[in-house]
Amino acid sequence: LRATELLAVPVDSPPALPEQGTAEQCAQRCATSLACRAFHHDQQSQLCQLLPWTQHSPRIQLQKNIRYDLYQKKDYLRDCIVGDGSGYRGTRATTEKGLRCQHWQATTPHDHSRFLPSPRNGLEENYCRNPDRDKRGPWCYTVDPNVRHQSCGIKKCEDAVCMTCNGEDYRGTVDHTESGTECQRWDLQHPHKHPYHPNKYPDKGLDDNYCRNPDSSERPWCYTTDPEREREYCHIRICKKRPRPVNVTNGCFRGKGEGYRGRVNGTLATHRVVLVPSGWLDPVPLLPSVFSLQLAAQCPPSWRIQVMAHGSWVGTLEWVLVVQPQLMPTLPTDTVTFEQCGQREERLQQKGRIVGGQPGNSPWTVSIRNRAGVHFCGGSLVKEQWVISTRQCFFSCDADLTGYEVQLGTLFKDPGPGDPDQQTIPIVRIVCGPSESQLVMLKLARPAALTRRVALICLPPERYVVPAGTVCEIAGWGETRGTADGSVLNVARLPVLAHSECDRALRGRLKESELCTAPLRAGVGACEGDYGGPLACLTADCWVLEGVITPSRVCARTDLPALFIRVSLYVDWIYKVMKMG
């Protein structure tokens, strides 16, 4: 987990003192230590600290900290098993029939002496384990006097998430090959060198050492940790029901053309038909053709059809038909309308910062709190029972959020019991968005009551682009670095930067899914605790959620643009999630 640390509340046994080393060296130390279950790594100082707990340990909480990256042993985090599950160290404590497990050190109601807790066997509390390598997987003694022991029925990781087609979209957590060999991490170049680095292919889901299919192979695979075997396929279950095709078209195609069902069976003479992504360089003069005119008559007006020419060899001229959808058209603000959202009691505008900010008014900004009731991230209320935040605030899409809640309707980070507008609602479900979006939607246990302090923020039109220079707001209860009152909601105003200008500032690394605001000399920006909160822009007299705050290593930089998730690219997915409930 990037920019994250684990805190023990209270500290029962302090962790080891920090030692010098790279992240890989720290991982090797932790792997050989029975007491180590996780470690912090400080990239700047190259120090690491071994930890005897994980985020699932009692009285432990996650907290954003830009100094540290957090690494945890996967055996303690998995809710599925690898092989026979003898390495499972999760916290399941009920059997497949729903019986509660007996503590391993207890001798009632079932007396046993064969399996007693030790640092090596992982027999902790009353958690399901497999100390005898039972082929049915982890089990436990039960508290039912009539049932001595029973299997816990924990799924195998290879069956937990299925794949469709060749598994290019598979994002499960299988990390062993068919032969049982552990996979090599995608961000490492040994024992096998390879071209598939996560930073080069951010849309391929190359997380950790999980099986993936970045090269359109037959099925997901990985590089292995065995120097003698470079790569192997992984065993992943195929989904029984294949998804229905979407966006079926006949006269033209959308996206990559997966839904195209037309009858075109050839190109224009010897010409190629290609789809050009957004950001195409200045086109050559348009060359008319009958075929392009037919496509133009059948495709939406927002699509651009061009026939372009270039010489592929000396003395020849190759024609290229370019069908380029205008991926992010800028809609005139007078064509955008909203209903029943984005309204608030306006106050006098104050120049403010979250780092160095002023108290603000953002009735759609919510505080997300962990089991200890501590604020750790922000979010935006887009429907009475739905909040949008960022995936970086949560360990996984299957995270157990029991005890987590959102707080609404108050300006205070820790309001007193007499706050009349405060609402606290449990979170019952987390839904992760498309892998490149880094968005999550949180379903609340009940609808929020809309008041003068609690309001919905509007969603933008699909693929809407905020005009450059628009002054938008960020809000949150995050770190202020001593420059403002950190106990209240702070608001900052930031101007939107043109996509092309931001891309130049970031040396071509800007993604289509990202939105930028210009850096300000005063050091205005988001920090730890603000992540997941809104970038709200005023459009047609309503406040619209145009961006979501994402983690960064440095708060409020004065030399580089601030990045946000561009919400308008994902509104179709957002509406579908809310509709399906």
What does this structure look like?
By secondary structure, the chain is mainly β. Among the domains are: 4-76, Hepatocyte Growth Factor (3-Layer(bba) Sandwich); 155-243, Beta Barrel (Plasminogen Kringle 4), CATH 2.40.20.10; 358-575, Trypsin-like serine proteases (Thrombin, subunit H, Beta Barrel). Helix content is 7%, strand content 23%. The protein has 5 helices and 26 strands. The strands form 7 sheets. It has a 7-stranded antiparallel sheet with strand order 14-22-21-24-25-26-23, with no helix packed on it. It has a 6-stranded antiparallel β-barrel with strand order 15-16-17-20-19-18. A hairpin with a 5-residue loop joins strand 15 and strand 16. The longest helix is centred in the C-terminal third of the chain and has 10 residues, at 571-580. The protein is globular and about 70 Å long.
Features of the shown structure:
single chain; 581 residues; mainly beta; Hepatocyte Growth Factor; Plasminogen Kringle 4; Thrombin, subunit H; 7-stranded antiparallel β-sheet; 6-stranded antiparallel β-barrel; 7% helix; HGFL protein; signaling receptor binding
Number of helices: 5
Assembly classification:
single chain
What is the CATH superfamily label of the domain at 358-575?
Answer: Trypsin-like serine proteases
Tell me the Rg in angstroms.
27 Å
E-strand count:
26
Mean pLDDT: 79
Helix/strand class: mainly beta
Q: The CATH topology of the domain at 358-575 is what? A: Thrombin, subunit H
Instruction: Choose one word for the global shape.
Output: globular
Biggest sheet record: 7 strands, antiparallel
Distance between the termini: 29 Å
Side-by-side strand order of the widest sheet: 14-22-21-24-25-26-23
GO molecular function: serine-type endopeptidase activity; signaling receptor binding
Protein name: HGFL protein
Keywords: Disulfide bond, Kringle, Repeat, Secreted, Serine protease homolog, Signal
InterPro entries: HGF/MST1, Kringle, Kringle-like, Kringle_CS, Kringle_sf, Pan_app, Peptidase_S1_PA, Peptidase_S1_PA_chymotrypsin
